[in-house]
Design goal:
single chain, alpha+beta, 2 domains, seven-stranded antiparallel β-sheet, 5 helices
Length: 147
């Protein structure tokens, strides 16, 4: 895996948004279980690589995408390149190239969760936690139904 070593834009988990992503570049995903890189070109993932930290086994292409895990303690580093450097990166990392590009929405929607707590999750899906009165009514209704 060959990557240029410039200072990245470091993101906190859960703050990743489509507007944060470069037109050409890559994202490094670092966590305790694996390290991964996805190559981004114009809103699409065009290449991916993943390494299992414990076994040092490397995965490429679609198999790498399946193994990418973004956990709560993951660190995301976003690197921006120009088109020319990006094409060189893809050429040098040919084994990572996906046969069909994947929309970046996949990693934003399925891999990165913006939910930090149970309360946030309930609010996101407009689920109201039952009050004590709601519980009492359920019990009374159940008792009257059983009678």
């Amino acid at each position: 895996m060959w990557l240029p070593t410039e200072d990245p834009i470091i993101m906190e988990y859960g703050n990743l948004d489509k507007s944060d992503l470069p037109e050409f570049g890559y994202i490094k995903i670092l966590n305790r279980d694996n390290e991964a890189v996805i190559f981004i070109k114009e809103g699409f993932i065009v290449g991916s690589w993943c390494m299992d930290v414990s076994s040092l086994e490397e995965f490429y292409e679609n198999k790498a995408m399946k193994n990418i895990d973004i956990a709560n303690d993951s660190k995301l580093e976003i690197y921006q390149t120009n088109n020319s450097l990006f094409e060189t990166l893809i050429e040098l990392n040919e084994e990572c190239k996906l046969s069909l590009p994947i929309e970046i929405k996949l990693i934003l929607n399925e891999k990165v969760s913006d939910i930090a707590s149970r309360k946030d999750l309930l609010e996101k899906y407009r689920i109201r936690a039952p009050s004590e009165e709601d519980v009492e009514n359920l019990i009374l209704n159940y008792k009257s139904y059983k009678s």
